[in-house]
Specification:
359 residues; alpha/beta; Zinc Finger, Delta Prime, domain 3; 2 domains; five-stranded parallel sheet; elongated; binds zinc ion
Length: 359
């Protein structure tokens, strides 16, 4: 089991739960950067709210019927709304307005996945919310990536929150809370999360099996330890290492075709959770960001502790920033490039152009 304090940081919500669950606001909004424990805490709180033998410190007991149902994902008084269960009924331009993309995972093409949480998902809650509970009278709804709700979906949720039934608790999670409807934000109690202290998070990652590389991965993840754990679980660390190595060892003499084929190799690696084009583009962006930052200030944000190219000071800040901007535009089409190899070659050309020394 991982360190309790970092994953399940009750300190963040203690002002709310110290008065007892019955005084808890009907809607909580867990807001803050990704990978810092919002979802883990939301799940833990949901289990505690439904637990039938909750501890004096307001943790779920882990043993009662309700806890066992929660662990099995079958508690009748719990609902999770997320992109994963977004149906494909929402048609673009329709009521839900969900944009859809075909995502490929490994060899098998996955079903079309919606990029938004549609009104049908919220409407489906109405019966759950307004009908009595099955067990201890409480019902909990966890709404992941709440900012991805379409406007009709958010309005529909707002209607429920305007007259919330008693004993119903919504926990909204958002990495981009500013994208939420302001009326929805004002109906919720906002709980702000931030990056944990670097030393604590590094120690935690070390103990979770990252060893001596804990600090450098934490830096690469922008200080979000759970993002690093996700990479580890998804077997992405080797690809991240290899991408950074390919970037650090390139210079103006590097052939873009060779670089692109190196990157293609990373994307072709087999596994449950392959390294995707969007991960690659994001990695290149972080790298360019740091080259520009180091060129200007001598410091880096994402790559402290990683191998650095030798002559950063001689790079051209204008070229770096313009490549960063161009590659930013690539991020949008990274999910479904028409011709992946051509896409990679074009990325490589932009990247190598950024390495031209200042004249
Ligand atoms: Zn329990």
């Amino acid at each position: 089991m991982q360190a309790f304090d970092l994953l399940i940081n009750y300190d963040v919500i203690s002002p709310l739960i110290n008065e007892g669950f019955d005084r808890l606001p009907h809607a909580l909004l867990f807001a803050g950067p990704g990978g810092v424990g919002k979802r883990a805490l939301a799940e833990h709180l949901a289990a505690a709210l439904l637990c039938e033998a909750v501890t004096p410190q307001h943790h779920a007991c882990g043993e009662c019927v309700a806890c066992r149902w929660m662990a099995a994902g079958t508690h009748p008084d719990f609902r999770r709304i997320s992109l994963d269960d977004a149906g494909s009924e929402d048609s673009p331009g329709g009521e839900g307005g969900g944009e859809k993309v075909a995502e490929k995972s490994g060899d098998k093409a996955k079903k079309q996945k919606s990029r938004s949480i549609g009104i049908d998902q919220i409407r489906a809650l109405e019966e759950f919310v307004f009908v009595g509970s099955h067990r201890n009278a409480r019902r909990v709804i966890l709404l992941d990536e709440a900012e991805l709700m379409t406007i009709p979906a958010a309005n529909s949720l707002l209607k429920i929150l305007e007259e919330p039934p008693s004993n119903v608790y919504f926990i909204l999670i958002s990495n981009h809370q500013k994208s939420l409807l302001p009326t929805l934000r004002s109906r919720s109690r906002v709980v702000l999360f931030s990056h944990p202290d670097h030393a604590t998070a590094t120690q935690w990652l070390k103990e979770a099996g990252l060893g001596d590389k804990a600090a450098r991965y934490l830096n690469r993840a922008g200080g979000a330890p759970l993002r690093v754990m996700q990479w580890k679980t998804d077997d992405q660390l080797a690809a991240i290492d290899a991408l950074i190595e390919s970037l650090a060892s390139s210079d103006t003499t590097t052939d873009p075709i060779t670089l692109a084929s190196r990157w293609e190799g990373l994307l072709k690696a087999k596994g449950e959770n392959p390294f995707l084009m969007e991960n690659l583009v994001e990695g290149i962006q972080c790298w360019l960001f740091d080259l520009a930052l180091e060129q200007a200030t001598g410091e880096v944000r994402y790559h402290a502790g990683w191998p650095r190219p030798r002559e950063v000071k001689q790079l051209n800040s204008f070229a770096l920033l313009s490549a960063w901007r161009e590659i930013n535009a690539y991020r949008r089409s990274a999910r479904h490039p028409l011709n992946p190899l051509l896409f990679l070659e074009s990325l490589a050309i932009h990247y190598l152009r950024a390495l031209k020394p200042a004249t």
